[in-house]
């Protein structure tokens, strides 16, 4: 199996990830019903996000913490939701890729998810969100 090497690999990973997410009973409805995500808008944003994270290209512009903080007002994002998100992400990476970048993207996803979970559910979250 090959490693994640370029944007085409990121696109494959992101597309597979969100296809599984949409079918998932725990977090799928948050995307498809509550946020009613516009996929042709969301997916390219996520390609940029992961390319920025993994390859250090500053192409993603946005504030994921704020996005999820406001999402949390409509769909509480708790342990179960984050556990599910991480499980699907890790499984998708492992199904498609192996190598240093595959390990790095899982570690980054884990740290961002854990930080997001902590900030959203912390009593101080309104002050510390960014
Ligand atoms: C409980 C787990 C999660 C759920 C249910 C969730 C759900 C969502 C939804 C519904 C959106 C789209 C908002 C919209 O377009 O209206 C979104 C955007 C986004 N998510 Fe998540 N998310 C989760 C965890 C994560 C994690 C762990 C990361 C990063 C590692 C992440 C990164 C992003 C980014 C970068 C955006 C785009 C923000 C922007 O610039 O607009 N999400 N998420």
TrEMBL record:
Transmembrane segments: none annotated. InterPro entries: Globin-like_sf, Globin/Proto. Coiled coil: none annotated. Signal peptide: none annotated. GO terms for molecular function: heme binding; oxygen binding. This is Hemoglobin. It comes from Pedobacter psychrotolerans.
């Amino acid at each position: 199996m090959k490693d994640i090497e370029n944007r085409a690999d990121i696109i494959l990973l992101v597309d597979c990830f969100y296809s599984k997410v949409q079918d998932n009973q725990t977090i799928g409805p948050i995307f498809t019903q509550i946020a009613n995500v516009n996929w042709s808008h969301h997916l390219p944003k996520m390609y940029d996000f992961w390319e920025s994270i993994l390859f250090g290209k500053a192409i993603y512009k946005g504030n994921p913490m704020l996005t999820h903080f406001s999402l949390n007002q409509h769909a509480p994002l708790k342990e179960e939701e984050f556990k599910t998100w991480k499980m699907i992400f890790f499984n998708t990476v492992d199904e498609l890729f192996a190598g240093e970048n595959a390990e790095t993207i899982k570690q980054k996803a884990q740290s961002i998810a854990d930080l997001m979970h902590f900030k959203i559910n912390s009593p101080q979250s309104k002050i510390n969100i960014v």
